[in-house]
Amino acid sequence: MGLRTREQFIAGLRDGRHVTFRGERVTDVTTHPVLGKGVRHAAIDFELTEDPAHRDLAVVDHDGEPGSRYFQVPRTPADLLARSRLIEVSTEIGKTLVILVKEIGTDALFGLLRVTPAIDAAHGTRYRERTERLLDRYRREDTTLAVAQTDVKGDRSLGPAAQPHPDYYVRIVERRPDGIVVRGAKMHTSGATNVDEIVVLPTRAMTAADRDYAVAFAIPVATPGVRLIASPHGSALRHEFDAPLSAEHKMMETITIFEDVFVPNDRVLLAGEAEFAGPLALAFVEYHRFTAVSYKLPLVDALVGSALLLADVNGVGRAAHVRDKIVRLISYAEAVRGLTELAALRGRTDASGICYPDPLTTNLAKYQFAHHFHEAVRDVQDIAGGMLVTGPGLEDFQDPETGPLLRHYLGGRAGIDGEARTRAMNLVSDLTAGDFGSYHAVLAVHAEGSLEAEKLMIARSYDTRRALEFARRLAGLA
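and the corresponding structure tokens:
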């Protein structure tokens, strides 16, 4: 098929999947008042391929047939740049919220393509062939994918096999001639309620004692035994006036539970080869952090634009301290953008011809974004003012008695009445102060790896020997 329409994508989600929301079973995720918003947000990916303005970016040729660019295995830095640009454009259309129905899944598949040849060579498995077949199938069927990687973990000081509860990490509980049976739970599975399939990966390095926990596979969301418990965070239904970003855009997050789920052999991609759990997790992260910094670009641009808008509306654009904050915001945004582009331009090609982003620069971009995000939010809020959390609602402006009073008293500089100023405030409030803003704030710290994980990768990726030898030569100690 190659490409699906928006309508075909949505129809495909009516498959009997087991989803609960606030303790109640959801029979149709596409019509649910909250989960349906996530579905419509995800559908942006399919609208892009049908839009002449974006088709050249979103669609590529796959063996003579049109298909999503996300399924194109990157071979050159130019491929990585195009992928990054597609993620950025789709996130702009999603009003700073990434779509994430093919980006993360293909990040996982590319990581598998890079690691599985070594597993096959060491253990006589056929994981690379299975991964290639799955990728080809997903490409032809235009499949949407989530990734379940982060285990619930239990006692963080202990490894998987040493946990007080054996199911704190997803594990193999039975091996059959035709497949495996798995049990356990994963956290923070983004978009799982509105995708076709889930790719499961190990979350950390493992030892021989953790053999049963070294497991990777891909299955349909509607597989018997898969249960999705959807997070209620940010589920309040609001009007576009009060929430101009989040009123129509939602990322669903789930706890994904596997209750003795059978996975057939052709979908098993790691099953006990414990020494490869860490390399596989790392190979995924090398792509996914690049995806992360790509989808952060519209967010940092929105912070700059919001600061400029509120400075203008409030009439403080010429104040020296405001100019200083705006320059700081611009510097922050452009540093993230420049490092993201450099990560692609420095892309490396492995022995099989697959190009991956430069790990050092990717992690520098992610660290730069995460480390300074809350400072950027502070500067925008400082320029905006306290009305971010004390302003009136849409109903107050619609009221014939209070509406004229609010338009009169809440105005800004000449030409800006109270309603226009409130709309500008609501943009910043939604972006930085409400449920949507808090979602962005927590993701800045924890999504795609913590600040400590990024620092570790920066230290690991930098060639300290070269720098040390240079310093030795300068000091005359060589």
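(Above: one complete record from the training split.) The CA atoms of residues 40 and 249 lie 8 Å apart.
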